[in-house]
Amino acid sequence: MGRATTSESLLLDLVSQGSDASERFICPFATGDQGFIPPYCNVYEMGSSFTGSQVSEVTQAGTNFIAKSADVPNQASYSIGLSGTGSAGAWINTHVMEGRTGGYYLLFDDDTGYEIEFWNYDMNTGAIAGGIHSGNGFMQGVDLVYKEKTTASGVIEAFSKSMAIQDGVRRL
């Protein structure tokens, strides 16, 4: 009798430098932080593994990260179900870094009229005289790390785990 070894993972890495919310949303009430969507860098990984014999295993993975507007949140899901003899594991690893807008002001420019400049209260950075920039004006508001792993070993009658995330300014 042989052995089976499986391992798979789903990775979703979402990054933005920040943007004007009025140009990204269909919903007029979803204006973000002071009318801007702050920058973010969010990484999600979900997966499973099995080593053993006499296994019956099914996995399912799904993502949704392309949309016409920011009204639709990004989504990822992963599930596993198995029975067999051996060792099984399923996990989710998450690192969420969300920004916030410190403040903004209107800077007059002779050629284009008014343009928006950001000011970061925490770092005392932003646009200064002569169009020189000393930072992007956004501040980090959240730094969240979440990890979870479920394991089983021996004669496994039933092993099942389902995981899902939604990431967006608006959630469904």
Structural features:
mainly beta, 2 domains, 4-stranded antiparallel β-sheet, 0% helix, 70% strand
Task: Tell me what you see in this structure.
- The chain is mostly beta strands.
- The protein folds into two domains: 127 residues, no CATH class; 34 residues, no CATH class.
- The protein is 0% helix and 70% strand.
- It contains no helices and ten strands.
- The strands form three sheets. A four-stranded antiparallel beta sheet has the order 1-4-5-10, with no helix packed on it. A four-stranded antiparallel beta sheet has the order 6-7-8-9, with no helix packed on it.
- The protein is elongated.
Structural class: mainly beta
Envelope shape: elongated
If helices are DSSP runs of H or I spanning 4 or more residues, what is the number of helices? 0
The largest beta-sheet arranges its strands as: 1-4-5-10
Number of strands: 10
**Largest β-sheet summary:** 4 strands, antiparallel
Helix content: under 10%
Rg from alpha-carbon coordinates: 23 Å
Strand content: over 45%
What is the CA–CA distance across the termini?
Answer: 48 Å
Number of domains: 2
Secondary-structure element order, N to C? EEEEEEEEEE
Q: What is the average of the pLDDT values?
A: 81
**Uncertain segments of ≥5 residues (pLDDT<50)?**
none
